[in-house]
Structure formats: structure tokens, C-alpha cells
Amino acid sequence: MVTSPLPILYSFRRCPYAIRARLAITVSGLSCELREVLLRDKPGALLDVSPKATVPVLVTGNSQVLEQSLDIMLWALDQNDPQGWLSPAQRDLDAMLGLITECDDGFKPHLDRYKYPQRYAGDGPGAVDGGGAHRDAAAAWLYGLDARLGPEPYLFGTHATLADMAIAPFVRQFAQVNADWFGAQPWPKLQVWLQAWLDSELFGKVMGKFPVWIPGTTGVRFPA
Fold first, then answer.
1. Residue 206's closest CA among 215, 197, 214?
2. Segment 50-54 mean pLDDT
3. Contact predicate 23/30, CB 8 Å
4. pLDDT tens-digit map of 30-49
């Protein structure tokens, strides 16, 4: 019997989009060949399969190319979802996708301008206040997340779901910009939620350090 080759995942350890893809692949029980890349020196093999030249990119065993992190998450979970990430205790998949869209299209642009104000010179008030206006705009959305958590520990009820795992990497990135400021904000439920994820075994598994992939060689098996 001929076995299909492992899917190939082009990834960068700290990228929140790549983190969310690795989370789903890991929890699904699937395996892939992980190729860690340097974003400043992207390999030709990545550019050949995905001219957009961002990570993550997954090349499946049947050569389908998935260029969006959320598509990779859904691809993995559609095959195996042992923890019910696609089955929230409250609401449904469409509601989760709606919240993730708010994160990606609304929160993330403010996060970028808060974290890297020098890259957005002349781009609105955040360019002249060190990103403070964008920090505050992003924080307004985080207040909403804190309110969503309410009596339940997760965004959609009693167990972690696609929404928690797709959004947490970006909240982590926001918190890292100024950890003292983040810790002083009045969103205790959000802080507990984030810390529980950071302390989880799953997060530890997906944040292992991997050598940069050398073209012409086989990447590392992931999860290890």
C-alpha cells in the first residue's frame, strides 16, 4: 500500500497565525512536516507554492495548498476534533467564526499599530502617540472579551473551542507589548483565560523551538 506523504507546514514560531495553525494540527492528532522559515529570508519552495509569501502555509498530502491559518485549523479539525473545538457549548460555528473575524479584521490592525508604531508613520493618531490610540482601540475590544467570559472559563462556554485557540495568540502578542500595563487593566477574567492557555500543555507543545529549515532537506516531524 502506498502511503501519502506528510502534509508540509511552513511556519514561523512566534507568528500568531502560525501558532493557531499548529494548535489545531496538534490537538487533531495529525502529523506534518514542519519547515521553520525566517521571514526575512523566505525559501524559494515557500514562494513557489504560495506567492503571498506569508506563514503559515500548508501543503496537504494531496498537494492542496492552504494559505490561511483559519483554513488550516478547519482542515485539521474537520478530520479529527477530539476536544470538540468545532462544537461549542454555547452558540455555534458561525458565531465563533464571527468573533474570529472581529479579531482578525478589527483587533489585529490596531495591535500591529500599537506594537510597531514606527512602521505606520503618518497613519492616524497612533503614529504620533507611540501607538497609544491604537492600544486603546484594541483594549476596547478586549473589554468585550472579558465580558463574554462571564461565569464560564471560555469564550463559548465550558470548554475551549476554535474561537479561544484562534484568538489567544493575538491577545498574547498584545499583552507582550507592555506586560505591566496589560496586567493592570480591569479585565481579570481575560487575564485568567490567557494565563491558563499560556500554562497549558498544548501551548508548550506548539512553542518548541525548531531549527530553520534548509531547502533540499526534510523538515522536522510535528508534533514531535
1. 197
2. 92
3. no
4. 999 999 999 999 999 999 99
Which pLDDT score, from 0 to 100, does residue 123 have? Answer: 59
Please count the residues of the chain: 224
What nine digits make up the cell of 135? 492600544
- At position 22, the amino acid (one-letter code) is R
Cell of 150: 462571564
Confidence of residue 126 (pLDDT cuts 50, 70, 90): very low
Cell of 167: 484568538
The Cα 131–Cα 120 span in angstroms is 9
DSSP assignment string, 202-213 = HHHHHT---PBP
Tell if the pTM clears 0.90, that is, is over it: yes
Q: Please name the amino acid found at residue 36.
A: E
For 99-129, give the DSSP string.
HHHHIIIIIHHHHHHHH-GGGGTTSSGGGTT
Nine-digit cell string for 176:
507582550
β-strand partners of 10: 35, 57
Residue (of 137, 76, 133, 136) closest to 106 by Cα position: 137
- Taking a C-beta distance cutoff of 8 angstroms, is the pair 83, 27 a contact? yes
Cβ contact 187:146 at 8 Å = yes
